Amino acid sequence: MNTKIILAVCLIFSMLTGCTGVEMTKAAGQEAENKTAGNSVSGNVVVSFINVGQAESILIQSYDGKNMLIDAGETIDNAVIDYLNGAGVKKLDVVIATHPHSDHISDMANVIKNYEIGTFYMPDVTHTSKTFEKMVSALEDKNVNVEEAKNGIDVPFSENVKCRMVAPCSKFYDDLNNYSAVLRMEYGDTSFLFTGDAEEQSEREILASGEDISADVLNVGHHGSSSSTSERFLEKVAPSIAVISCGINNDYGHPHKETIQKLNERGITTYITRDEDKAVILKSDGEKIYKENELIVQKGNSGEESDIESKISDKKEDRAVSAADGEFIGNVNTKKLHSSDCTKLPNENNRVYFKTVQDGINEGYVPHSCIKNN
Ligand SMILES: [Zn+2]
Ligand SMILES: [Zn+2]
What we know:
The structure is a single chain. This protein folds into two domains: about 1-285, Metallo-beta-lactamase, Chain A, CATH 3.60.15; about 295-370, no CATH class. Helices cover about 30% and strands about 25% of the residues. It is built from 13 helices and 20 strands. The strands form three sheets. It has a nine-stranded mixed sheet with strand order 6-5-4-3-2-1-14-15-16. Helix 6 packs parallel to helix 7 (about 130-140). The protein is globular. One zinc ion binds near residues 99, 101 and 177.
């Protein structure tokens, strides 16, 4: 039945335009107008794990103006659309609806209506929910090119960014979560694995498929639930960074403490969307990964100083206050102000010290949640 829907969508599209889906992908001319605001993407691939509460939505922006959206969260305060607009997105070259649960697709119909869509990927499964029906109607209304998300396909995105889908591997699952599209992205020496809500069964199949799933950054499966991130899977991915999408005080107790423990035992640095105002933003230049200009992953050999590094050292020289004992610590790059016991303190050489919160604010620093919550 679901295959029929996809075929119908494709058929309608072909009838109206008389061309195949492949031709739908716009040529390079589109890129210039698709550039994001500011130049933060130039030379980089920027991955934003958007804070959409107990849900998931991830925006990937490539140096050449290409954009990919994985899931569209829950409809909370227009968070997804606002974020896309704030990032200057006009076209989404690739959209992936990992699986039909509402915490992953509830804003998808709006996204489809509001942006030009290149290719849309979803697994071969349907859902009777209104949210799912709205998404499918929006796809049909706009004659979007829909492809089946499945193991072993390459997803054309950006010339130097390799994207490969490694799940779902099977046709039928008891649990909708296991239909989740799982995507591995590689840019230069750096790599990311996006897992949706794939659980242990899917993880086992992925391992059996022999696909390369190693990644510097693991988007932890199913919001950090203990039903995902099995030992063997985690060992194979071997990430140094983990990112979990989940809301504050959610009904599921996500992330589960078993998952956090596994990550901690392996010394994996974990970021959670709920701790950020807007998103966990990671930026790869192909060799290094930064979080808000803080170096968090270093690959390859670090011969030359990159643009970002030189920007950071310029800023260091501008610093008005030198390191002295103080209660509050500012991050010179992000301008966030932390209490001295916060777990998100910047690297030693990116710090500036203040005696009071007000002193920091006077210097243009914004209190982090560690201060706001006290
Ligand atoms: Zn979910
Ligand atoms: Zn789910």
